Amino acid sequence: MCDGGGGEDQTPSFEMTWGSTTSSGYCSQEDSDCEFEQYFTARTSFIRKPKKEKDEQVEWGKQQELSVSEIEQKVKEYNAQINSNLFMALNKDGSYTGFIRVQFKLVRPVSVPPPRRAAPPQDGGRRPTGIKRRTSFYLPKDTAKHLHISSRTRAREVIEALLNKFTVVDNPRKFALFERTERHDQVYLRKLGDEERPLHLRLCAGPSEKVLSLVLKENETGEVNWDAFTVPELRNFMRILQREEEEHVKQIVQRYARARDKMRDALASTTPG
């Protein structure tokens, strides 16, 4: 992913940091249809926001391009504040490489390919039907990952790299990278554009995670991009909507039936004249 000048610093390296060793839930499409029931019903129980979050345009996204001398100075200042080996390195062409840490804050399950196993013998030599199998699970709440990237790496490339390292097969457009800042006990979130450069934001903000941290979340745009979902997902959504519609119709019918019964009781108890 790093596309700066020559040297070993241009080879991306990845380090995985897990905050937990167990997932919050597990379901296989291969066994039942419960995956997408959990997709909706588990959502509210997994949304936990101890601090109120607001969307706000913060300064780091507005930073202008830095000169080579300014980058060199900022890299020196950044490395002076680091207590680990996650240093930034300046390249001869003016680009630089370094590490970013991305927290996963997903409230929905992600999908990965199922474990490979020997195909059972088919009667009559027929090949199995072309049904795509996959496994879905919830990532641990405190999952985080370090990526070694270049100053030229875009936000969309970071998302794709994260999904690849976890072998997630979901469409990358379902996810978005957010910039998170804390000020006066208030948390602010800003969604990064596809072309923004996370390492540039990290350099300008410094190494403090409170000043700036990067978070991977679902891409909540207000408008659903249905093209990003697979056919099995869309069919499950249709089933859920149908159940909700049937339940709503049932409640309306029951309400009118009760009203009709009350009117009949009133007519029966009324004396003519």
TrEMBL record:
SUPFAM superfamilies: Ubiquitin-like. Pfam families: Nore1-SARAH, RA. It is found in: Cytoplasm, Cytoskeleton. Keywords: Cytoplasm, Cytoskeleton, Metal-binding, Microtubule, Phosphoprotein, Zinc, Zinc-finger. One of its GO terms (biological process) is Ras protein signal transduction. Residues 10-29 have a biased composition (Polar residues). One of its GO terms (molecular function) is zinc ion binding. Residues 131-221 form the Ras-associating domain. It comes from the Eukaryota. Its main location: cytoplasm. PROSITE patterns: RA, SARAH. GO terms for cellular component: microtubule; nucleus. Residues 223-270 form the SARAH domain. Residues 1-29, 112-134 are annotated as: Disordered. This is Ras association domain-containing protein 1. It comes from Aldrovandia affinis.
